[in-house]
Amino acid sequence: xxxxxxxxLSYLAGSVTFIIGLKQLSSPDSARKGNLLxxxxxxxxxxxxxxxxxxxxxxxxxxxxxxxxxxxGTVIGWLMAMRVKMTAMPQMVSFxxxxxxACAAIISIIEFHSHPHGSSGYLLTVFxxxxxxxxxxxxxxxxxxxxDEKIKDLSARYLTYINLGLLIAxxxxxxxxxxxxxxxxxxxxxxxxxxxxLYGVLFVMPIGGAxxxxxxxxxxxxxxxxxxxxxxxxxxxxxxxxxxxVGSAGxxxxxxxxxxxxxxxxxxxxxxxxxxxxxxxxxRGEQVVKEISLTDTAILCAYAxxxxxxxxxxxxxxxxxxxCHELEKKLEDKGVDVNYAIHPVAGRMPGHMNVxxxxxxxxxxxxxxxxxxxxxxxxxxxxxxxxxxxxxxPAAENDPGSPIYGMPVLKVWExxxxxxxxxxxxxxxxxxxxxxxxxxxxxxxFGDAKDMLGKLVGELKEL
Amino acid sequence: MSTFFIDxxxxxxxxxxxxxxxxxxxxxxxxxxxxxLMSGANAIHGVVIIGAIIVMGHASPDxxxxxxxxxxxxxxxxxxxxxxxxxxxxxxxxxxxKK
Lengths: 463, 99
Prior knowledge:
heterodimer, A: alpha/beta, Rossmann fold, six-stranded parallel β-sheet, two-stranded antiparallel ribbon, 59% helix, B: 0% strand
């Protein structure tokens, strides 16, 4: 078996693990396996390259230095990834993404430094890798700084024009550098590096904190494309498949994220244009909560096809589990399909709600776990939230500035109606505002859980 | 144009099919997995490190600029790969089934 055969075999294996890994990452049950599989494929491809790669019949040299660099990178990367707090995950991802972008940019710089002459196709590939890598690097570093609250938003109308100008200038230099390489000579690479790095900074600068995950996802797909240009450059299939896969998947993911926030990508990118960056919080004062009467609640539930009850700590405090079970039985009598959505951390400990409801003789199959119930939310007519708060807070998904950002939550806002039963507008355990209460679908029912549920059962009897 | 297409036919096939595959693989992912998926994809584009190894591995031993930059590129690429996969794994630990 020739070295080249083994090299290509490792690349094929790498490409396949990336595809399967990414596929498995998009389902909760197999996600961890998928991540490990892709990591394994990556190791194969790296080891294959170090051992078997040849250029003009020369094997890879400078191996001690390569291993030293990989050793240092592994230790630093590992420590950073292990030590970062769960809440700081998005900026960590952004940071690592920036490192990948920088890596792609540096490859182009070295390549041009060693071989400044070549076909226009070669030059175009080198320069595009440089531009996209640099934008990804500087943009990701700014995104990291913003999420870590080291850098403030800078929103100004003129930035949009400056950015547009920078983009045009970068592309103009690119065209000239490819069409007539002698114009800029060796400086082409530095001019492009400066222009595109500046563009990356100013591109991310005005975008609001809440939209950062979208930006990170976009920059993520940029780095993928930069890696793919490296694949073109070296005719390297694993860089090509890995890079393009991330480039296209990242773009789709970016669009999905925008859809989930009900915004368009363009709106996110130039969001600062008119609004002036009020995306994150604030402006709460103008929002009003809508109250609902007991009678209306009873009617709404009685004529619903499917009702989901979301229990929280408030249910436990009020000892309302028995009356809650009674409400469920009353609704079932009226032909309503009732179940309970159990968030893993509802209450103050995992499984708290399961214990509580089991005590009230609620049949076990009616307790549905978060992963299973979230996909059903959009077919649910009424969600009744009994004393839960943080576990239904949409900020966990769409506000990176929120302390609970990244926590999986019950997506009750996808149901047709949301009724929140709580004593007051007080914040939950995490001490943060819940924008769900101001959601257009949400109606509030103020009072003690046990008391109100009892009255609700009474109303249902009247119907 | 047509000669470019024929000369690079294999590459063009890989690109087009990979783009379609990327789109196909990602569709229908639940919102709850957006962040880990982004993080996993982030680790995968760390494959750029292979380019860094190639450029470093074939740099001539007296070209100090190439060696220094190559060293940096390999280091940063490794950060991307290792950090990316480890952070993703930590995120996904939250999804382990209780009990």
